[in-house]
TrEMBL record:
<dbReference type="Pfam" id="PF00990">
    <property type="entry name" value="GGDEF"/>
</dbReference>
<keyword id="KW-0548">Nucleotidyltransferase</keyword>
<keyword id="KW-0808">Transferase</keyword>
<feature type="domain" description="GGDEF">
    <location>
        <begin position="40"/>
        <end position="177"/>
    </location>
</feature>
<dbReference type="InterPro" id="IPR000160">
    <property type="entry name" value="GGDEF_dom"/>
</dbReference>
<dbReference type="InterPro" id="IPR029787">
    <property type="entry name" value="Nucleotide_cyclase"/>
</dbReference>
<dbReference type="InterPro" id="IPR050706">
    <property type="entry name" value="Cyclic-di-GMP_PDE-like"/>
</dbReference>
<protein>
    <submittedName>
        <fullName>GGDEF domain-containing protein</fullName>
        <ecNumber>2.7.7.65</ecNumber>
    </submittedName>
</protein>
<dbReference type="GO" id="GO:0052621">
    <property type="term" value="F:diguanylate cyclase activity"/>
</dbReference>
<dbReference type="InterPro" id="IPR043128">
    <property type="entry name" value="Rev_trsase/Diguanyl_cyclase"/>
</dbReference>
């Protein structure tokens, strides 16, 4: 959680108090720059809450805000301060996930396990203010590549998310290519 400073107020999402997109890009840039020293692998998970606009319209914006807060709380409770979390869009959250494996092939099981954990965590029913909902999510994942800058890394996760949203069978998609290719 961010400190109470003028910068912190501008760098966090006003509703969830998670990092906002601008602060998250700075965090991603730091991770990219430190890769040459640490060789730590990360997957950037971009999570989209499915049918959120319909939820807002069919219930209330207040309930929609409560759902966003509840999802942020679930993420914070599950991951704690070790994982970098952010709300990067209206109904999009990001998780910077450390990976144990080093190659694309050996990382895939880690990514599948991580995506399933996120899906199960967020898919739990939410009951607030007399309303009840069960959320579906789609996840886009982009692996850390030292050739990418932070914006390209996030762009790769966004491309993967679009692929996941167009795939009725799978709830996540991994983007392995350089986003500018």
């Amino acid at each position: 959680m961010l400190e109470s400073t003028p910068f912190a107020a501008k760098a966090q999402d006003p509703l969830t108090k998670l990092a906002n997109r601008a602060l998250y890009l700075n965090t991603l840039e730091t991770v990219v720059h430190s890769y040459n020293e640490t060789k730590l692998r990360f997957g950037l998970f971009l999570i989209n809450l499915e049918n959120f606009k319909q939820l807002n319209k069919s219930t209330s914006y207040h309930f929609g805000d409560l759902v966003l807060l509840h999802v942020a709380e679930r993420l914070q409770q599950h991951f704690g301060p070790i994982y970098e979390l952010a709300r990067v869009g209206g109904n999009e959250f990001a998780v910077l996930w450390p990976l144990l494996a080093t190659g694309e092939d050996t990382t895939s099981p880690d990514l599948s396990i991580a995506a399933t954990q996120l899906f199960n965590l967020i898919a739990l029913p939410i009951k607030k203010s007399g309303y009840h909902c069960e959320l579906g999510i789609k996840i886009g994942v982009c692996l850390l590549d030292p050739k990418l800058n932070a914006k390209q890394w996030l762009q790769g996760a966004e491309i993967a998310l679009r692929h996941a949203q167009n795939d009725a069978e799978n709830h996540y998609h991994v983007y392995y290519q350089h986003p500018t290719q």
